[in-house]
Amino acid sequence: MPESFQQAAPLNIKAQYDLSDLNTLSLAGEAEYFARFNSISELLSLLEYAKNKQLKLKVLGGGSNMIVQPQVNGLVLQSAMQGIKKLAEDDATVTYAVDAGLNWHQWVLQSIELGAYGIENLALIPGTVGACPIQNIGAYGVEVGQCIEEVRGLQLSSGQCMSFTAAQCDFSYRDSIFKKQYKNDFIITQVIFKLSKHFKPQTAYAPLKQMAEQFVEDNSAQLLSAKQIANWVIEVRNSKLPDPKIIPNAGSFFTNPIIPKSQADELLSQFPNMPVYAVQGSSKNKEVLVKVAAGWLIDQCGWKGKSLGLAKMHDQQALVLTLQAGASQQDLINIQQAVQVDVNNKFGIGLQPEPQPFC
Ligand code: EPU
């Protein structure tokens, strides 16, 4: 690491820092130490500080995919860097480097303003740009990995700057290298997006398809814009998903389980309405795999709108676990386990939570 770290500006490190406003489940928790950084040199100084003090490093994005524990040991880092920089352009595409600390939805809106298309279906997803590659955020027929060219950051254990091409990120459904080999040992500082200059509506998801068909019938295909798609996505999300500022939640609480097609076929003979989706290029021991809708499984077990203690599965979307003010980690665990047991008993499927413990 450069020698200049010793002389770097004083780092704004806070001790016993309250994290309850920094996670969308609003769980009470305290970080032993917490710091936001405004530059890569500040980040390097923080890594050096942690190394000298033998503090573990933890990375916090928008706090929308984590289950904060009451005591979080070590130094929690959060990027305050929010720059957007055009890197390249040709007739068809434009490439932007976006800093990890920027709010994801702000970037989606900004990309549309800039005439750079591809991520409009991902409007209103909570979190930051830096968090988006980790679980390869996806909604309404689009996964962010399709638009990412490169992910840049630092390995926490070595302080080494690293960059991953999209192929190296190994994106798949709600998964990437950052949840595997680099789990807990990498901080994403910047994401490079390659977006299209020509808007092509992505309306494979049924509700969007209906809205687009109606729009084209009433207007004309030329008037269908990325802004319009983003507005529909916002409308659909607002109708199903609670606003975490009002009702604490972390979006989909479980991932949609991926199971062998043979198992799904057996279940379909008993539950013909079970939603099943193809998983591209996915197989295990030569067996074809499919994805089933966790929200439907939970709903079928009677959990939609049902509470346990201070936790509840959302009335409009059973996949979303919500908490009341003052709910504890134990309230969350209780309902999580009760739902898992019921789904397992009825369908023989083990649901996996999407948010990860932050401790
Ligand atoms: N369903 C029910 N009951 C419910 C919820 C869903 O029967 O309570 C059924 C629906 O009718 C539909 C199917 O289950 O047939 C799937 O539901 P939906 O279209 O709402 O999508 P999802 O699979 O539950 C996934 C993502 C969402 C994303 C939507 C739309 C995951 C874990 N979740 O949900 O992502 O917005 O698709 O693309 O893959 C998030 O990650 O936080 C998130 C909201």
The sequence of SSEs as H and E is EEHEEEEEHEEEEHEHHEEHEEHEEEHE
- How do the strands line up in the largest sheet? 6-7-12-10-11
Cofactors, ions and other ligands in the entry? uridine-diphosphate-2(N-acetylglucosaminyl) butyric acid
What percentage of residues falls in helices of 4 or more residues? 25-40%
Overall geometry comes to globular
**C-alpha Rg (nearest Å):** 21 Å
Q: Characterize the main sheet.
A: 5 strands, antiparallel
Helix and strand content put the structural class at alpha+beta
What portion of residues belong to β-strands? 25-35%
Number of helices: 8
Cα distance spanning the termini: 28 Å
Can you give the mean pLDDT?
Answer: 95
Uncertain parts: 1-8
The count of DSSP E runs of length 2 or more, i.e. the number of strands, is 20
Give the structure's gist in a few sentences.
By secondary structure, this protein is an alpha+beta fold. The chain has helices at 40-53, 104-113, 166-169, 206-218, 226-240, 261-270, 294-300, 329-347; strands at residues 14-18, 30-37, 57-59, 66-68, 71-79, 84-89, 93-99, 138-139, 142-143, 148-155, 161-165, 186-196, 249-252, 258-260, 276-284, 287-292, 307-308, 311-313, 320-323, 356-358. The strands form six sheets. Strands 6-7-12-10-11 form a five-stranded antiparallel sheet.
